[in-house]
Amino acid sequence: MAPAPPLPGAVVAPPLLRLEGVHTHIGAYHILHGVDLAVPEGEVTMLLGRNGAGKTTTLRTVMGLWRASAGRVLLAERPIQALPTPEIAQADIAYVPENMGIFGDLTVRENLLLAARRARSLDDLDTGRLDWLLGLFPALRKFWLHPAGKLSGGQKQMLAIARAMVEPRRLLLIDEPTKGLAPAMIRNLIEALREVRRGGAREEQPTTVLLVEQNFMVARALGDSVAVMDDGRVVHAGRMTDLAEDEALQHRLLGLSLAAHQ
């Protein structure tokens, strides 16, 4: 998989999301130990690291599902770490958890409508945006009236991402979207996420993405920026291309090389 092409005239953007010295406790367990993280606006930032490094906890802390016990989470310089999760979501942040979070007994159509905060019926949805989403994920159009629980794993993942994008979002948090998917489905998902990053076919504002991923070739294909976590801290941050070209750094941070996965 080739690295994602840079956007025309792209420069490193100022951060849309910043974490400053964030600590998170879950019960008696101290999971995040002072996380510092900057997510540039309009880019895809990959959050990498070994299992148990704190990646999922970081996403859940941003969404307020687990509370930061210290430090600040800032969205466009506005502190959000003390806000309730529904209010954080109202700030145009969407979260796709590792378990996808779809409603298996509801149809594809009903899942998408339920995720649209401003729509009470299908007629209230932006038809142009809906057509764009169904173009990215054709299986969703095919199974429009089927129960979501009967979709394949890859189709469920695409529905989860489509739910998060059924309305324009400023920030999209995605946890391991390619886990367990077949290579052909991974390629389709990569192309869809590239289109999301560009803002779609209607010249909308590009969506900023923070993406947790264990497939390092996917990280290389999609990432503009990268942060690597270990033991509840960010131990490396920079451009994805720089990490992709430095095998020694890959071994030191991740215990393997991207070249071995080509």
From TrEMBL:
<dbReference type="InterPro" id="IPR017871">
    <property type="entry name" value="ABC_transporter-like_CS"/>
</dbReference>
<keyword id="KW-0067">ATP-binding</keyword>
<dbReference type="InterPro" id="IPR027417">
    <property type="entry name" value="P-loop_NTPase"/>
</dbReference>
<dbReference type="InterPro" id="IPR052156">
    <property type="entry name" value="BCAA_Transport_ATP-bd_LivF"/>
</dbReference>
<feature type="domain" description="ABC transporter">
    <location>
        <begin position="17"/>
        <end position="256"/>
    </location>
</feature>
<keyword id="KW-0472">Membrane</keyword>
<dbReference type="GO" id="GO:0016887">
    <property type="term" value="F:ATP hydrolysis activity"/>
</dbReference>
<dbReference type="InterPro" id="IPR003439">
    <property type="entry name" value="ABC_transporter-like_ATP-bd"/>
</dbReference>
<dbReference type="InterPro" id="IPR003593">
    <property type="entry name" value="AAA+_ATPase"/>
</dbReference>
<dbReference type="Pfam" id="PF00005">
    <property type="entry name" value="ABC_tran"/>
</dbReference>
<dbReference type="GO" id="GO:0005524">
    <property type="term" value="F:ATP binding"/>
</dbReference>
<keyword id="KW-0813">Transport</keyword>
<keyword id="KW-1003">Cell membrane</keyword>
<dbReference type="GO" id="GO:0015807">
    <property type="term" value="P:L-amino acid transport"/>
</dbReference>
<keyword id="KW-0029">Amino-acid transport</keyword>
<comment type="similarity">
    <text>Belongs to the ABC transporter superfamily.</text>
</comment>
<protein>
    <submittedName>
        <fullName>ABC transporter ATP-binding protein</fullName>
    </submittedName>
</protein>
<dbReference type="GO" id="GO:0015658">
    <property type="term" value="F:branched-chain amino acid transmembrane transporter activity"/>
</dbReference>
<keyword id="KW-0547">Nucleotide-binding</keyword>
